[in-house]
Amino acid sequence: MSHGFLFATGIENSIPTINHGRTRVDEMAKCRHYQQWQTDFDLVQDLGIKALRYGPPLHTTWRGPGRYDWDFADATFNDLHRRDMVAIVDLCHFGLPDWLGDFQNPDFAPLFADYARAFAQRYPWLQLYTPVNEMSICALFSALYGWWNEQLRDDRAFVNALKHLVKANVLAMRAILQVQPQALFVQSESSEYFHAVNPAAIGPAETLNARRFLSLDLNYGRRVDSVMYEYLMDNGMTREEYAFFMHNNLKQHCIMGNDYYQTNEHHVAQDGNTSACGEIFGYAVITQQYYERYRLPVMHTETNLCQGAGGEDAVRWLRKEWANVLSVRNSGVPIVGFTWYSLTDQVDWDSALREDQGVVNALGLYDLDRNIRPVGAAYRELIRNWSQVLPTQSVCLQVPVLSPRDVDLAQACGIAPTPHLSSTVTAPKNTD
User: Fold this and answer.
1) Is residue 246 predicted with pLDDT exceeding 80?
2) In the prediction, which pLDDT does 375 show?
């Protein structure tokens, strides 16, 4: 059984549609992963990384109810198994297959649970899952900002998308646990904060700071505050739907993934309009807020920055985020992993995938020719230095993460340990 700190990266499988469904934004295609997946896995190993946020492209794998094309998933996941690499399986990343439409479709949640169950049955050595990535961001961008998928712009559409996304996540967790009792779920969600620009903006900022928790409140069965309850009820959620979330709590199987970028903090004006404000509080302060709300083990599941001149901007950001991770850990929060996202440069991230322009953003550990960037070399060195220290002093010793070979061995011996994270975490020692 492996208990080490999870140094990770990711290969993004985003597939939102734009242009009212006419254009599919497939990030794996844009980054040439379909042609270079074996090279990409080699690069992950060359960095000394043992954990990879990764999933098959949903739109080409899930062909219809009970219909699947496993060819690409078989090739890639069997190769990850051969390499004994821990995958954090990203099943739904910002988009749906054409036959399902968009996130306004109530059939999405139960059908997605069937897909998750079939996936877990096919790859029984996999233990870590992110069934639905960034539920809040997906609902906001698809149904409130009008950027992706259904491209709607109203609160009722947002609540509809959100409840379907979170229900899909909960039902998928339940389905996976029926197949894989050792499963742990890493909820990768954007960690946000809204700053009032003047006293008149305090009210709108408080509302937005309550809304940022909605996806995780529903996912973890935590009662929302009264303002948010009224908001949900006023915009189409029924009491029965709310009760479903309160009574399907799988929190003991979860690790809270916090994504943090320079764009995660916002200024709020008195009319409720928001604007980017850059890093003010930073990852450590905001993650402490989320931890105090949910009391779950934490993983830093996404961050990056454009490399800047000579690569130094990205290297400085990596060191700053790592310092924040250590600060969170030393304050007593059980933090179990860190992720630079993603392995290679991203394409069209500068427009949040809203435009299909082919603009390469220098955010990766490697460029799209698979040459290492300065931040990749710095991350490799960071992993080499810290992986020897953290296992002897870190709370993550208590998180029962199994490698594929561990799972094979346990199953061969008829052993099926069921981890309950809430009973295993203890405060870490300070390494400063």
Assistant:
1) yes
2) 97
pLDDT of residue 309: 84
Q: Indicate whether 432 belongs to any domain.
A: no
* SS3 readout for the chain: CECCCEEEEECCCCCCEECCCCEECCHHHHCCHHHHHHHHHHHHHHCCCCEEEECCCHHHHEEECCEECCHHHHHHHHHHHHCCCEEEEEEECCCCCHHHCCCCCCCHHHHHHHHHHHHHHHCCCCCEEEEECCHHHHHHHHHHCCCCCCCCCCHHHHHHHHHHHHHHHHHHHHHHHHHCCCCEEEEEEECCEEEECCHHHHHHHHHHHHHCCHHHHHHCCCCCCHHHHHHHHHCCCCHHHHHHHHCCCCHHHEEEEEECCHHHEEEECCCCCEEECCCCCCHHHHHHHHHHHHCCCEEEEECCCCCCHHHHHHHHHHHHHHHHHHHHHHCCCCEEEEEEECCECEECHHHCCCCCCCCEECCCCECCCCCECHHHHHHHHHHHHHCCCHHHHCHHHHCCECCHHHHHHHHHCCCCCCCCHHHCCCCCCCCC
Q: pTM for the complete prediction?
A: 0.93
In a domain, 136, yes or no: yes
CATH value at residue 73: 3.20.20.80
Has residue 429 been placed in a domain?
A: no
| Number of separate domains in the chain | 1
Range of the domain at 130: 6-423
Asked if the structure places residue 431 within a domain, the reply is: no
